[in-house]
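Materials and Methods. Structural model of ABC-2 family transporter protein. The 267-residue sequence of ABC-2 family transporter protein from Streptomyces tuirus was retrieved and submitted for structure prediction as follows.
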Amino acid sequence: MAAPYAWRAARVTPLGELNAPPRMTAVALRLAVQVVLVWSLWRGLYAHTGTTAGLSRDQAVTYAVLAVLASRLRELDQYAGRDTVLQHMHFGTIVYWYLRPLPPQRYYALRAAGEQLYGLAWALTGYVICLAAGIVEPPRSAAVAGVFCVSMLLGQWVLYYVMLVLDQLCFWTIRNTAAMLILLFAQNLLSGVYAPLWFFPDWFVTMSAFLPFQATLSVPLSLYVGRIPLSDAAFQLCVQAAWVVALALFTRLLWRRAARRVISQGG
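The predicted structure was written out as tokens:
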């Protein structure tokens, strides 16, 4: 792959989705059902109470719906294109990533960027519809909206590196499907996808604060709904940025060590 055309790697997974209209229809239906179910659930939970865990009903509903929409940013069917690290390791074709003019780490980054931009289109479309329908609340101010966007960008950056670490584990475990399922569940749980972290015990919240998962989604959405005030935004953004730097250095080291394990016959 010549350098001037390296950007085409970003189209790999999105093109697989766009060339399969039934798959896009299924995604739209599933996303709509998820939003409706989450909206109904949280409104039902707040039917007989005003504020719980520091969140009002509208804040909780907004948080939960935005979490569903944010999940579309990286929730694409990579297996259809048979271009996941896990598949390449299984079939012994990972060696081709190291034979191209484009370094494997750059190819991986470009492909992930394309997936996130494609997912962003879904998330923004869903957000506009939910905002127009009154399902979610708008940002309380322009400052909140700006901080949320910066935090969300940093959160997706952290998520990219977290997912990269999971893929890099394949170079040592070959078949790590079970491990990836466990880690993906932990990622969704500790990042606040299933429920805001304030509903969990104090020890759980404290433990999650020492892990990068909270920085991926919980922090941006907490800033959006006002659970984290703007006065604390600078500190939270610095924590997210620190996780980006730490994970970037860690994954760079793993890429170097992974290259030593690749042989000419494949995985």
